[in-house]
Amino acid sequence: MHQQVDELDQWVDLASERLGGAVIYANDDFFAEKENLLKPSAPVFIEGKYTDRGKWMDGWESRRRRTPGHDDCIVRLGAPGIVRALVIDTTHFKGNFPESASVEITTASPNATIEELLAATWTEILPRTKLAGDARNQFGVGHTPRATHVRLHIYPDGGVARLRVYGDVVADLAWLGREGQVVDLAAVDHGGCVVACNDMFFGSRHNLIMPGRSVNMGDGWETKRSRKEAPDWLLLRLATEGIVETIEVDTNHFKGNFPESCAIDGKIAKANATAGELLEHEGTWRPLLARTKLQAHTRHFYSKELDNRGPFTHLRLRIFPDGGVSRLRVHGVATTIGRENAVLFTLNALPDAALEAELLTCCGSSTWVRTLAKSRPYDSLLSLQKKSEAAFASLTAEDWLEAFRAHPRIGEKNAAAATGAQAAAWSKGEQANLADADVETLAAIARANAAYEKKFGFIYIVCATGKSPAELLEIADARLKSDADTELARAAEEQKKITALRIEKLAQRKG
């Protein structure tokens, strides 16, 4: 299904070079280099320009195939995300454009090798579809999981000038940092999005939250000369809910056309709120920065001047009366709810295998993992917790035993949990009180572990969070007196407690 150009404005080009996008593989780029595909500029044609391989073309062009098969290339997205639309631009390719194309996505490490990517599992998001020559071929895409790489297939060969991959950023959660850490809540590569503006005649609204400082006057948000009393405005959805610490308004390169002043307001709204919904009730906006004079070609920082620090999910920037702003930075701290929302958004967007790997850090039962993964979406932490409890309630004794095997023994030094580094780190934190235990106590716990395993056939498992070494030893001694059936049920209850605590840590990105 073709999309109109104006519909593409609501999304970010995930493959953009400015975000770090790169064409990392092409099976053939004999006539024109694969790197041209992601150039930010519109494709050009230079009459009479040739290279030693043929006519110079501003795009990716493979040689004419004389063997079966087709050509393809792989793009590492600059920002991982959910793909919403594609533009396969064949501008200036008239007698040498591909007959058709298809597109696939996958999720992989940013450092994945070409060999790993070629062997990866790819999901088709655009089936083989005819292309028009010398045209911007636009295609809507149905629901997709989070992608890190895109693979463009052209049939059988030919040239494509540009590839644009429009969608919603689903950032790596490392951007959240530690609890209380100041981050840029507006950054596009963290998931910030400029929802709407009243005008962007000279410069796209999306430029405002791009990485780095602007490179020229065209790399910013600039409105036309409005000739009206009311200010121009822009609506920004933050990457997640947060408390604002510092605002930066940068007018870099805007010297004779910077705004006389600006003002910023904030509010809390649902993540998918439209511009109409955000603007509907003026009284719901709270002043963040009162109208303040701006200077040309300057980075302005505001902290003490902020009237209300939030929490906010959306900001409104007003510029008086018009003009250009190159960048807007919103340095702040994600709230607890903000951290939860960011994590849940990502979990809901992950491919099945990636989601299951995340859930496995909370509980080593593969049945629990699959059951919980199938219960998406997770609308809130409470929703995730309830679905986790329901999944745990369906487990059998064999499932419990599988979960137990994913844990290190109590007091075991340098133990690596079977479910990976995150689970190992959580186990270490849960047993933190054992770090100062004396040698005698640790030896007694080791003897209790051995006696427990010999009697019951599985490790001594207990929710160790907050418990002293003496308490853990006392609990082990008491449980050694139980019969097998009673102890298996008790151990399952302890696993349930551990799972519940880890679900909360996962949702709030703790530890």
List the helices and strands and how they pair.
Elements: H1 5-8, E1 12-13, E2 22-26, E3 50-51, E4 54-55, E5 60-61, E6 71-89, E7 100-106, H2 114-119, E8 123-130, E9 136-140, E10 147-155, E11 159-160, E12 162-169, E13 183-184, E14 193-197, E15 221-222, E16 232-250, E17 261-267, H3 275-280, E18 286-293, E19 299-302, E20 312-320, E21 324-325, E22 327-334, H4 336-349, H5 352-360, H6 366-374, H7 381-393, H8 397-404, H9 421-430, H10 439-456, H11 469-479, H12 484-508
Antiparallel strand pairs: 1-12, 2-6, 3-4, 5-11, 6-9, 6-10, 6-12, 7-8, 7-10, 13-22, 14-16, 15-21, 16-19, 16-20, 16-22, 17-18, 17-20
Report on the structure:
By secondary structure, the chain is of the alpha+beta class. It has three domains: 5-168, Jelly Rolls (Sandwich); 173-337, Jelly Rolls, CATH 2.60.120.260; 351-508, UraD-like, CATH 1.10.3330.10. Helix content is 26%, strand content 27%. The chain is built from twelve helices and 22 strands. The chain has helices spanning 5-8, 114-119, 275-280, 336-349, 352-360, 366-374, 381-393, 397-404, 421-430, 439-456, 469-479, 484-508; strands spanning 12-13, 22-26, 50-51, 54-55, 60-61, 71-89, 100-106, 123-130, 136-140, 147-155, 159-160, 162-169, 183-184, 193-197, 221-222, 232-250, 261-267, 286-293, 299-302, 312-320, 324-325, 327-334. The strands form five sheets. Strands 1, 2, 6, 7, 8, 9, 10 and 12 form an eight-stranded antiparallel sheet that branches. Strands 13, 14, 16, 17, 18, 19, 20 and 22 form an eight-stranded antiparallel sheet that branches. Strand 3 and strand 4 (54-55) form a beta hairpin. Helix 7 packs antiparallel against helix 12 and helix 8 (397-404) packs across helix 12 (484-508). The longest helix is centred in the C-terminal third of the chain and has 25 residues, at 484-508. The protein starts with a helix and ends with a helix. Mean pLDDT is 93; it is low at 1-5.
